[in-house]
Amino acid sequence: MKKALIISPVDNVATALEDIVAGDLVEARLGKKVETLEAGENISFGFKIALSDIPKGGNVLKYGEVIGKASAPINKGSLVHVHNVEGARGRGDLAKGDAKP
Amino acid sequence: MTFLGYERPDGSYGTRNYVLILPSGIIADQICNLVVGTKTMVTPMDATSGRTKDDRETITRVYAGLGQNPNVASVLLVPGGGAGGTQYPETSTERLMDEISRSGKEVEVLKNNIGDTMETIARDVKLAREMVYEASKLRRKPCPDSHLCIGVKCGNSDPTSGIAGNPVVGHVYDKLVEAGGTALFGETTEIIGAEHILAKRAVNKAVAQEILSVAHETEERAKATGQDIRTMNPVPANIKAGITTLEEKSLGAIHKAGTKPIQSVLKYAERPKGPGLHFVDNWAWTLSIFMGYAAAGAQIVLYQLGGGGLEGDAVFYQTGSTVAPLIWCSANPRTRASGGWNLDFYSGTIIEGKETIADVGERLYSTLLDTASGTMTRTETLKYTDPNEVYTRGPVF
Question: Could you list the residue range(s) of the whole structural domain that residue A12 is in?
Fold first, then answer.
């Protein structure tokens, strides 16, 4: 069983506290509550694992706050990182306009 | 709680007892090579040419602020050297002398400046030796921790920073503020996405609005580049270690500021008007931020390192300490393994499930007081300091 940390009850990602290999069972802990899920792919120490399916455009939540939006559908147990999440802030590359969240 | 400090004429207490040579340049460099107990800023020699008045004021604030820092026993000014060579009134020897003297400490300027660099070095070395000798007569004595002012930067952030390293620093910040001390944090780019949380902690509406304004202004500058801020911050090393967006980095970063009310928003190197927690609108760069905190009066700075994206051991990473010693902390077990003895403090026991944030925070507070009382930090055992850069806003002409 591999360990991961959930920071806030509303979060839909957990942080890997050790290197996780695809197929590993992961124990994601929030205080005394423990959620068990299977890793769909390798997730290195410090990286994020999805606790639920997140649709494209859906909010990615960590620290109880929005850290970005899914740029592709994310399955429960998958790695959540720059390949499937975009930030919403400081986006000078997007069309001009008010990009406030 | 107390630490052993050097009492200064203005009632402050130093954690060190340096003679500061200003500005940097060949004369300051040679004095620092030859005379123990001396420090200089270590910045590019002529920092003022073609800069705006605002930026020249910032540079002067850094010079004067470092001179006023409680860790400095006395100051030796080298007229005509470094930034003085441009003859802008802001950085004149007279103005620096006037501002630093207000702290009551001794400021010396070589009389009858000869004009020949080598002869000036010889005379300044002699003067610096006398100043260091005089400063050494001062003894440390117990003083309350309320006299401490500290600053923090979270460097080379990785996911251990937000979940363990920064919360431990936050514990220390809360404890120092409760004791009546002063705590500074900043890195405006790295509150974008978390500024609404900080604004709620502002002591009043005006300060809340200032927090939101500086974050907004920084975000607008980023957007004006036409680039995704993720191409600048988080830096590739953060992303390599698992941080995905700037919002995620910011939400982890603000934990270093603890939970106390934010009393004011300060400019880079601006001295806070009272104790408590203050936000500094500054630039995150290692070789700028520590000097800024020292110029604002910090007698110690904390460097909370993630390090997950580092390729070498921590000693290869920039240090940038000026007159305020730098305590390196990390919560990443791999950073500890590669950094080894170079790391002053390890907080990864939280991730290993062995200790709580509060337990580790108490230990870091003890380390802080030990360092304040004279125990060297690991980087202090080296004479090397990376060149620092004042946070100027430009443009340059």
Answer: 2-86
